[in-house]
Amino acid sequence: xxxxxxxxxxxxxxxxxxxxxxxxxxxxxxxxxxxxxxxxxxxxxxxxxxxxxxxxxxxxxxxxxxxxxxxxxxxxxxxxxxxxxxxxxxxxxxxxxxxxxxxxxxxxxxxxxxxxxxxxxxxxxxxxxxxxxxxxxxxxxxxxxxxxxxxxxxxxxxxxxxxxxxxxxxxxxxxxxxxxxxxxxxxxxxxxxxxxxxxxxxxxxxxxxxxxxxxxxxxxxxxxxxxxxxxxxxxxxxxxxxxxxxxxxxxxxxxxxxxxxxxxxxxxxxxxxxxxxxxxxxxxxxxxxxxxxxxxxxxxxxxxxxxxxxxxxxxxxxxxxxxxxxxxxxxxxxxxxxxxxxxxxxxxxxxxxxxxxxxxxxxxxxxxxxxxxxxxxxxxxxxxxxxxxxxxxxxxxxxxxxxxxxxxxxxxxxxxxxxxxxxxxxxxxxxxxxxxxxxxxxxxxxxxxxxxxxxxxxxxxxxxxxxxxxxxxxxxxxxxxxxxxxxxxxxxxxxxxxxxxxxxxxxxxxxxxxxxxxxxx
Length: 521
Known about the structure:
Elements: H1 16-19, E1 33-40, H2 44-54, E2 60-63, E3 79-80, H3 88-95, H4 97-121, E4 128-136, H5 142-154, E5 159-162, E6 173-182, H6 185-196, E7 201-204, E8 209-214, E9 218-222, E10 227-235, H7 248-251, E11 252-264, E12 272-275, E13 281-288, E14 291-302, H8 310-321, E15 326-340, E16 346-349, E17 357-361, H9 367-383, H10 390-393, H11 404-423, E18 436-442, E19 445-451, E20 457-461, E21 472-474, E22 479-481, E23 488-490, E24 495-497, H12 508-520
Parallel strand pairs: 1-2, 1-10, 2-7, 4-12, 10-17
Antiparallel strand pairs: 3-6, 4-6, 5-6, 8-9, 9-10, 11-14, 11-15, 12-13, 13-14, 16-17, 18-19, 19-20, 21-22, 22-23, 23-24
Helix pairs in contact: 2-6, 2-9, 3-4, 4-9
């Protein structure tokens, strides 16, 4: 294939899902309210929960810190599939056949439920049925592929072994899942939100919940000091910001991956693809008003722990060049996923001692079906007190003990990042180019500095407001990222995504340093 010159990207990162849809304009919460159910987070989980539970007659408030569907949902690959890597053999081996059966049934049901909701509500969201393939080019994975085919077939999933793909990739083995799908996630959620926003289900934007108090009911406090009283609360904020119970910050870790949207000379053959081995490589297409867009996805690292984030986009383009003649790089963006210790999401009661406080998090790379599963499970728990899939998703499941080794590895990494961030030796010079961010130490103080194209310096305290880890600079997205729990901030210090609920601090010392910088320049 031809080699596309990608040494200099034309555009800064931009998600196609955001670029192709209009912004929303739901109101900000300006008064105290009381509801039956408060949902924190207006992404795929939050809006799906509001849709299902609104039909149960509950008075609901969806509370979103920014605009709805601008976070993880707007940066996904949007594959509606029960094929979540080689997960079924893993669940069966580690958690048992019963829980593997629950996971399979739940995610297969979710595919049909999303399709049904689209049809019933007449949502135009580019929904297309597609097969999903997982493949390997490594002989070491052949047996794993064969085992996965057997397990998934035994669990009732329509899966088959394949020796080749419709793509020009020479594979050793593969699996094909039939009856899967893809869609435009923002068109879907915006359509669903417009359908549910009424007298009983209210959506509030630009309203960040900063605290939860436990009383007879729960009391949520917003960043504007308003109170929301509710018997039931669902935390659907991607990474839980609430640290008083559950220890989620010890059993979740954030992971970044990357997407490039390309135009190619060749026509895409259809289907959705992902490899079994590292480095991760995933493909799907999207029909747009401007022609066919091919999404090339992959690369992964813990958030805030890559020295050069632009290299990951380049690696994806190098891979794409082996398959297609690239004519244009139309979009590129990154996504951030919450990973659990055993690879299965946490959905259910926040803890065993918080009966009316619920959580849905840790979907890994597979948020489309797991978001719908979460909404169904949480509806069942709130309305019926039980769900047929509650055991495999239970955040307090005893089977997590099987992941003790991963628990130690991930928490050692967090401790390592926390300590190294405080002790690392940093440059003391102030040589910085327009569009560049650096971490400096001046008079013993660690600060983050970004110079914009107009020559203005933006200086922040690099200590994350969540739990005190030291932030690192993300050159591709021009953001300050936390290597411990994944909070991200703009170069001005505003929150991009949590679990942090406070912007970065700019104290008097930092203002003094800013004056020194300007004097030096």
